[in-house]
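Usage example:
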Amino acid sequence: MAIKILKNISGENKAALIIFILMGLLPIFISGYIIFILPQYMLFGLLAVSLCILWGYSGIISFGQAAFFAIGAYTMGIVFKGGGEINPAYVGIVCGALLSGIVALIVGYFLFSVKVRSSYFVLATLALSIVVEQLAKSQKDITGGWNGLFVDRITLTIGPFIEYSLFDDIPMYYFVFFITLLSFISIKWLMASKFGKILIGIRENEDRISALGYNTSFYKTIIFAVSGLLAGLAGAIYGSHAGFVDPSLARVLFSTEVIVWVAIGGRNSLIGSLAGGILVASLSNYLNSVTPEYWQLIIGMIFFIVIIIFRDGLAGGVEKTYNKFF
Amino acid sequence: MSSLLRIENLSKSFKGLLANDDINMEIFDGDVRCIIGPNGAGKTTLISMISGHLKPTLGKLYFQNKLINKLSLVNRSCIGIGRKFQTPTLFDNLNVAQNVELSILRHNLSKKDILKKIDETLEIVRLIDKRDILANELSHGQRQWLEIGLLIGNNAKLLLLDEPTAGMTSEETYATTKLINQLSTEKNLSAIVIEHDINFVRELGAKITVLHLGKVFTEGTYNQIEKNKKVREIYLGKADA
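Running the assembly step on the lines above writes:
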């Protein structure tokens, strides 16, 4: 029975199942720094997924993912600084995600409704990163300027009596794990729906899909907003996990890193992008501690090698190898 | 029979060059109309104005007796004006069934009905045994049919077919005339067909409009047009020589 069910699951879903089971069981076997840092990389993985649905599915490349991540993270920081009656965890996460989503919706609406060409769209997203970074630096009273903001670990509450602090690493790990899982499943569902199929149509041939009666700027605006929402959600939780937000989060360099994660992981695959974000961020961290002078060079070389060998990133490579042997 | 498309005094100028000059035409439900004319006669310009890719400089377009001049390209496809481009425009990296599915998704059907309609459509355009093949692996003629299939799946009432038999073998060309006539008689669909291939035009047997220098030069059946000496001079004459 179980084997029968497994046979009916697509290769991509099998990979997702294996990755999530591994991540779910990991804290049983190891502890310490890896369990502390891995949630951060899961959030980077979500950030990579937020680019995958744009670049891989819809053919829209964005250099602005760091801006949305930063908007989420700063919202969390500002909510903590401001205090308030309601649990800042919920306010921070919901507002961080919503605010990013709304900014993306507005930017997307103006750019797509006037049918900006894709090369100019990339420049506009690049500018967005710079604008957010500059705002973070200059609005000292709100954002702390260069010094950034300190953020506490969030505490989950249900009603007035039940509290669950995410101060320790294991609770934080599982909280981020479940958010990642839920977000991944929701995005997977969205992309398999009619909406996702039309996005693929836009990527494949925009002239044809609009001549079939689909308003492409509507679909592009919505997916850009969803992407901003997801990046903002990841950013808000990142703020609480890292305990600190600063202007470097919005840097163009960080946006470029997201593109590298997705390209290495496989831009046509949601699980490939998620894994790309987690693996490359982990590897960067490891290489940085081993060879601080050369780690970026090594990542760059890996990027070239993967792109040359597998056009569809690691996900494409795994799929090809799997099909060869099974 | 009710009027599907009515064109009144339609003109289009590009920086002073009159590509279409005062064109009048009426297409009824189930009509097939063939438009011929030498290069630069304004055939594709006319189709582009009907599909909404170009805005007319002057004149009016009515679809089912409603003025559609201000309707966007997207909305024109929604009311049933479907265009097949001069070079087949498909979702190349998707398979044949996925291509047709994208044209059907607009109608909010259930999953079962979508699958049924994909099969029906592929049956009509003779691609049912190619459903799992990528669009860019089809022959040129099959690509043309698939694009017609997208228009059928999209529920187009008026098919604008810009050179539908370009790149086809004579056998495929013959099958295409049968397909267009079958759609007209069985499904009551109308079509405006631009073609250069005179064998196709004869086989199709539809009423012909000859465009020359942006104007309607003459109209008639194949036999009438073939006997018209002036048409021979501007078009067929050149082809003979």
